[in-house]
Amino acid sequence: MMDIKKIYMDADALLEGHFKLSSGNHSGFYLQSAKVLENPKTAKLLAEALAKQIRESGIKIDTVCAPALGGLIAGYALAAALDVRYIFAERVDGVMSIRRGFEVSKDEKVLICEDIITTAGSALEAADVVKSLGGEIVAFAALANRGFCKRQGSTLEQKESCKLPKDMPFFALADFDFEMYAPHECPLCANGSVAIKPGSRGN
Ligand code: ZN
């Protein structure tokens, strides 16, 4: 069994410290998910592990579609591992769209792939645009699950904020469900440390 968290740690994609998240909450961990994909060999390894789970489920997939930017690399690597077609969706004036000459055939079986699923907002928007073009969404996938949605095989419960339909299979390699705190309740702040904004050092 692959130790996914160790792979993220080793790639400096899972940071330990005291962070101020974009939501305003504080956490002792921060996931810089693009970092784990900077080594193409690691990307390939992770995508193959994810592809194995998907293949074992028996779900037939014609195409992987990723919402840009976050899902681009993970989606491409997964499509390569599954040996299927790959397209991506992107925001145009804030609206998720399929451009670049990509076509979706009627009833084409499409899996939506992200690098990390938090509440799955972008993934769901990509699914909606694929459906509007006649495609059929058969599953969602991500390398990492932030712990709000329920991935196949996990004991975590789906939280209210998860936007994925409950009856839709969601594949991910691991749950990264680290705790978040409101600033006034943060035990790290109580210990006197100051939360830093990931990215404040140029990343
Ligand atoms: Zn704090």
Please describe the structure with a list of short key phrases separated by commas or semicolons.
single chain; 203 residues; alpha/beta; Rossmann fold; 5 helices; globular; binds zinc ion
How would you sum up this structure, described in words?
This protein is an alpha/beta fold. The chain has a domain at 39-177: Rossmann fold (3-Layer(aba) Sandwich), CATH 3.40.50.2020. Helix content is 26%, strand content 28%. The protein contains 5 helices and 9 strands; from the N terminus they run H-E-E-H-E-H-E-E-E-H-E-E-E-H. The protein has helices at 4-10, 40-57, 72-82, 121-132, 187-190, and strands at 14-20, 26-31, 63-67, 85-92, 95-97, 109-117, 136-145, 170-175, 180-181. The strands form 2 sheets. Strands 5-4-3-6-7-8 form a 6-stranded mixed β-sheet, with helices on both faces. The chain has a 3-stranded antiparallel β-sheet with strand order 1-2-9. It is globular, with a radius of gyration of 17 Å. The mean pLDDT is 94. It binds zinc ion.
